[in-house]
Amino acid sequence: MCGITGFLDEAGQDEEQLRALVNRMAQTLVHRGPDAGGAWVDAASGVALGHRRLAVLDLSEHGHQPMLSACGNFCLVYNGEIYNHRTLRRELEALGHRFRGHGDTEVLVAAIRQWGVREALPRLVGMFAFAVWDRRRQILTLARDRIGIKPLYYGWQRGGFLFGSELKSLKAHPKFCGEIDHHAAALFLRHNYIPAPHSIYRGIRKLPPGTMLSVAAGAPAAVEPEIWWSLRGAIEEGARRPFAGPPEEAIGELDRILREAVASEMEADVPLGAFLSGGIDSSTVVAMMQAQSSRPVKTFTAAFEEANYNEADWARAVAEHLGAEHTELHVTAAEAREQIPSLCASYDEPFADSSQIPTLLLAKLTRRHVTVSLSGDGGDELFCGYDRYFYLGKLWRRVAWCPARLRQAGARLARAAANVNPSSAAAGRLRTLAEFLSPNSAGEFYRRFNAHWRDPAQVLLHGESAEIRPADPRLETELPKALEEMMFWDARVYLPDDLLVKLDRASMAVGLEARVPLLDHRVVEFAWTLPLSLKVREGQTKWVLRRVLERYIPRAWMERPKMGFAVPLDAWLRGPLRAWAEDLLDERRLRREAFFRPEPIRQKWEQHLSGRCNWQYLLWDVLVLQTWLEANRD
Length: 634
Description:
Structural class: alpha+beta
Radius of gyration: 25 Å
Strand content: 5-15%
Oligomer: single chain
Shape: globular
CATH class of the largest domain: Alpha Beta
């Protein structure tokens, strides 16, 4: 795991100046790669590539980056792991390639040399973000893995093309502008994260999952990502070739595919372990690790003071049953709150998933013992695990019977009535009714109501109504069942732009590599061949995954309420965080800084403090954005 950065600028600049600049950019990513760093420049073309290395495979100098191909034409900087590198190595050796080390970077650059980027990408199994410079064709190509596990930002700034694993590396370039994108701020308040391709800065974008982008030296700035894999395509292929066997056969096949994915992700030349919450997903990963290991697997969990947020007893029981070597971090509320000031530095742009706090603490604990940790992320999105799917699906069915034309007419009438006296309590209810009636599909209904600030323009002085649909229609699809529509949205947007961002930044902040075997693309593609009846069955969510786990641990241990990896924000905001929040939400300050409209924020703050309402998530969004603005005021 590593950090990558670089730029493509005017040709003919001084080589040492380019090298010093890209080294300065790479140095901002030293937490991602504390073991080594490197830079490569082609001054005649204006290209510079920087790298920070966390050595995981082939700890020798043969894994050093930037890495040139054997022919000298391609130069690669790469972040991630290619889990099928041994298979690819044998195939490339049969074609005449020779290798010095045993790592995956050599294999990746050889695959690019042999097949080209576009043809090499579908052959890769793994998580990755990389940049490769083609010296002969004078083209810089960026690419990102199918699911969006590893991050990659890019953009044109004052005539220069910049890229990097994190925004802080782009900010180290003198051409970086740093102008806030107010539409992205509105999206943040709606979702509590900024969905791709947007970033908080105007002109800087996230490369969407499963895409690549090629920029030619001297080319104009208008370049668009090219899709090389899409979740939409995987879903459509699953619909064309659905799994048609009996349930027991589906359970067995899922078991086999998951075991292969877990086994491939256990390869490392450094100590390895796993996060274990005791839930279905992480327990499945650990069970399969232990089943394929000759030694006890090292597992890690965070134990909280508050009983409603503590899964440690379940995790300990699973670890003992499986024979794992288990370590607990006992977290006090004070320790968790102490992480808040460092969040802006770790996440670069506003990010308000409050479980980022315990995730960062758990990563710090885990890094004391291992360099690589497997995680159970992805099970809810693939196997229908969220309770909100059923709650919002039930609400959607209440309006879906009515033809869309009549619903839209009702929504227009409700909005018109609300505008008669817009500040009244009745107007608020009428606006909610209009939102309830206006969606055209279950997916749109889910996106509208599974949100925080549903109308960010009411909160931001320079805001606008944030779009609800993904920015690229080529990546969308329509599914026959409401639950599948909701799962698709979460897997397409929420998973890569919230959950995987949280995992990547928290783990990389401490130089820990986190791997997610449930998101091996072979698991994802198989999951979308399964009928919904195998995911929700006998009153249970994730039915087929539960039956797989039942092969390793007793069923009774799975029959417990679902718990999120969260912190008690509602109580903290009324108690130990109250003074901190009050300062950030002070009405005079909000008016002076002229970013937010104070009235709706103060109203929710006062309602929250009184205990009449629980606005913890909406208030946390504003507090995070305020904290980020304060840290980035320059």
